[in-house]
């Protein structure tokens, strides 16, 4: 099956000389949730802007379900919904009017049943006659999603979808996104909340300084780059590591009351058995042992640090 979004050789330099994108290649399959991560100024917003027709590209090609965004703009753009980071909408219009009007902007015939279905799916039906200005931040965010879905797009871009939303509403939004994917909508999101990508995404892309430095399935990425930390709590504090243990990469923590040992999860040998044997040989008595798995945030920080060096 051909990708629903095909980006090749995408480049963009702004008038002030800032090169926002430098030869980005990316394909996204229909029905997946793709998370694009990167620090501020990495090129995320420029990439979304080009695909959505808001920013003109300098070089490269973008095809949406086979439609070139420049040569076949109307067909390509009609397949895309965008939920911007900023809460920009007509504050004094009702929810119903705002969503219905958005559908008409794409030349879609009036379909009250579809608009009702979207509002119900987003728990906005009881707010349909409320003015946008009266809604809470979370409800305004839902209204933006409803606007983006009004014309029945196949791809939905979510730019920082839960920015400024409390934890409870954030998790509610995650449920909304998963439900959209179940209807066949392809979701592409940018986020500063690493746990958001870790919770929802099928694949992760990391962009830094205008270049896509990594694209990989989330589970494979965490298995390949993830590390574990063994934490050994001691019955009595150590003032310093014995020479034999210092050579194994251990570090003392918590005033000498614990030892920390980092190892690769995918390695054939972790070294834990030898470590525990050496601890016993040194007469070091243990109170407890636990492990900590590296998170997607740990991996992201390491990748962006390496790309910046």
From TrEMBL:
Give this protein's Gene Ontology molecular function annotations: ATP binding
Positions of the ABC transporter domain: 5-234
Q: Respond yes or no to whether keyword Nucleotide-binding is given for this record.
A: yes
- Top-rank lineage group of the source organism: Bacteria
| Cross-referenced InterPro entries | AAA+_ATPase, ABC_transporter-like_ATP-bd, ABC_transporter-like_CS, ABC_transporter_ATP-binding, P-loop_NTPase
Pfam families tied to this protein = ABC_tran (PF00005)
Write out the entry's keywords from A to Z.
ATP-binding, Nucleotide-binding, Transport
Coiled-coil residue windows: none
Q: Give the record's family classification.
A: Belongs to the ABC transporter superfamily.
Q: Which PANTHER family match?
A: ABC TRANSPORTER ATP-BINDING PROTEIN (PTHR42711:SF10)
Q: What is this protein called?
A: ABC transporter ATP-binding protein
From what organism does this protein derive?
A: Aureimonas populi
